[in-house]
Amino acid sequence: MLAMNYRGPLRVRASQKPMPKIEHPQDAIVRVTRSCICGSDLHLYNGAVPDTRVGMTFGHEFTGVVEEVGSEVTKIKVGDHVLVPFNIACGECVFCKQEMYGNCHESNPQATAVGGIFGYSHTAGGYNGGQAEYARVPYANVGPTVIPEGMDPDDAVLLTDVVPTGYQAAEMGGIQKGDTVVVFGAGPIGIMAAKCAWLFGAGRVIIIDQVDYRLEFARNYSQCEAYNFNEIGDPVLFLKKTTDWMGADVCIDAVGAEAAGNAMQTITGRKLLLQAGSATALHWAINSVKKGGIVSIVGVYGPTDNLVPIGNVVNKGITIRANQASVKRLLPRLIEHVQNGVLNPKALITHRIPLEEVSDAYRIFSAKLDNCIKPILISPSAGM
Amino acid sequence: MENTTKDYSHIKGWGIDADPKNDPTYPMKNRTNGEHLGYSWERPTLQSETVEILHSNERPDVTAVFGTSTPPSGLSGMIRRMAFKKTENDYGHWLPLILADRINVVEGIIEDLRSGHVPNIFAEKGMKAEWKYNRSGLLRQIAVTAIIGYGVVAFYRAKKKRDRGY
């Protein structure tokens, strides 16, 4: 089958790989119908996540038609069109039982700090991902969810990560009615977080980035204020001024390890890998939030350390909340929001690229070429 | 949820200020405090280990299910095996893994060549897209690289001449 094949930092190609097979009685094999490239795939693409092995297939946002199921699979059947949450979760461990599906303790042998994630290095379990014609889906009784009748597959594929992660970013902000919410990062997750902040009753939503076309998109899609940090001076000072010198009630880091805007962070975090990515957005979030405010982190960082002003967290009495999104927990509510027209995820999709051109797709997304917001890959077997 | 099988009556005031609402994990965690019982759940059927699976030494064993892509091999595999002897808390775990990743890139090129495939690195880096959507930027980058390259070569040539004394 055709699959994305990682060859090293900034090098990927589409090549033939063996078909996945059932390796556990709760496995399913799906024929992938939609697969996205996520901003967090770029951390892998840039070689920033330890234990990213050559030959691996990325892709943790995908939908597919069930082709085969293992002997213990009862919740889905051959022919079902399913969306596959990015978390691989057993549903049985104490963390899954508490709906922390991103923190499963039975899906990632290589690290205890994160549950299994499709196509996200051996640090997240060593699973091949969905940027392929076919994919193995473990714990098929837990994660995969039949796409509701009438739902556009383009909406469905964004329910595997982008929508739940953006929503949970806002949820973790503990937003109260009238709160000022600042989102750092106008990528798909940041745009969705800004959109979802309104659902929790935010009074004002501001998004900060440096890419003008993305800021323009956010202004329209998320109906929020959008500012280019290259044009506002020190973003922390700007945010203090614009909140009557108080600071924002809630700050959301929707950037993670690839942040720009601070030379020291960029050099030590992204170029020299002396820290687990550049923590510029988190730094700004901590310093922009009000005393007693909340910082919500969904941006992905590597597993080692980052330079952040932790002293200010203590002195300002900040509450930090963070996690990988628990997709399965959020799906019922989010499916409702999509079906009721409250959220329109597919509007984020700007590029549909054949899987055969995956090298170009990564380049377009990574270098923000052609006004790209969200690319999806269509495999030759997608069939729809 | 309380999990108070132990008797704390000897501790004066034990629990009098407990407040179940003081829970910043809500609503992300549907708290049951099952963790207090330890590794107690009924494990799913265990997947057979058909390839070498390294596991964190912060857990007792391999998880019930795991990925089987790209098992460790070659020099990078040896380094990965050593890395997994250290905890996730230790730089001795993560830094060797990053080193192994870089060595693995060279191994990948050798593997390609051995199988008769010459990797098209420009295509793998998506240069076609860069040429299509950012031609001037790409040309600028090439020009800058060429000028720097020429400068470095010229510097060393001049140095060589000086060292020879003519």
Automatic annotation (TrEMBL), chain A:
It holds the Pfam family ADH_zinc_N. InterPro entries: ADH-like_C, ADH-like_N, ADH_Zn_CS, GroES-like_sf, NAD(P)-bd_dom_sf. Its EC number is 1.1.1.-. Residues 188-265 form the Alcohol dehydrogenase-like C-terminal domain. Keywords: Metal-binding, Oxidoreductase, Zinc. It comes from the Bacteria. GO terms for molecular function: oxidoreductase activity; zinc ion binding. The keyword Zinc applies. The keyword Zinc applies. SUPFAM superfamilies: GroES-like, NAD(P)-binding Rossmann-fold domains. Its cofactor is Zn(2+). Residues 25-144 form the Alcohol dehydrogenase-like N-terminal domain. Gene3D superfamilies: Medium-chain alcohol dehydrogenases, catalytic domain (3.90.180.10), NAD(P)-binding Rossmann-like Domain (3.40.50.720). Belongs to the zinc-containing alcohol dehydrogenase family. This is Glutathione-dependent formaldehyde dehydrogenase. It comes from Rufibacter glacialis.
TrEMBL record, chain B:
The chain crosses the membrane at residues 138-156. It comes from the Bacteria. The keyword Transmembrane helix applies. Keywords: Membrane, Transmembrane, Transmembrane helix. This is Uncharacterized protein.
